[in-house]
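Thread: quick sanity check before group meeting

JM: Hey all, I'm pulling together slides for Thursday and realized we never actually wrote out the predicted structure for the chain we discussed last week. Dropping the sequence here so it's in one place. If anyone has concerns about the input, flag it before I start.
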Amino acid sequence: MQKVKSAGIPKKTVTGTSSDTAQSLSTLGATVRFDQAGGQESQAEFTHVSVETNGVRVCYNGDATTSLGDLLNPGDFVYLQGKEEISSATFISAVAGAHASLQITTEF
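JM (edit): ok, ran it. Output follows.
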């Protein structure tokens, strides 16, 4: 069993599905920013993404492709920290047509 330490106030965990096109965390359905009372915007500081089915690639500051990005297989996870890393991460199915199921939790 793997331990995951919470580093902030977690938002709802969502299930995202990769595709043959690079997607951001928000496109995958995760809450990466929201408006607080008083009109202030809050951005996620930490994000935990675990892979449940099929491989996926993750890339930063550029779109992931089936041959570019870190390969994550089922059972793997990535922990993203910082607004820039979270907002720049893109995910794509490692093999065209074999989409990955991802569990994504953001923390503020």
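AS: nice. The mean pLDDT is 91. The chain has one helix and ten strands.
JM: adding both to the slides.
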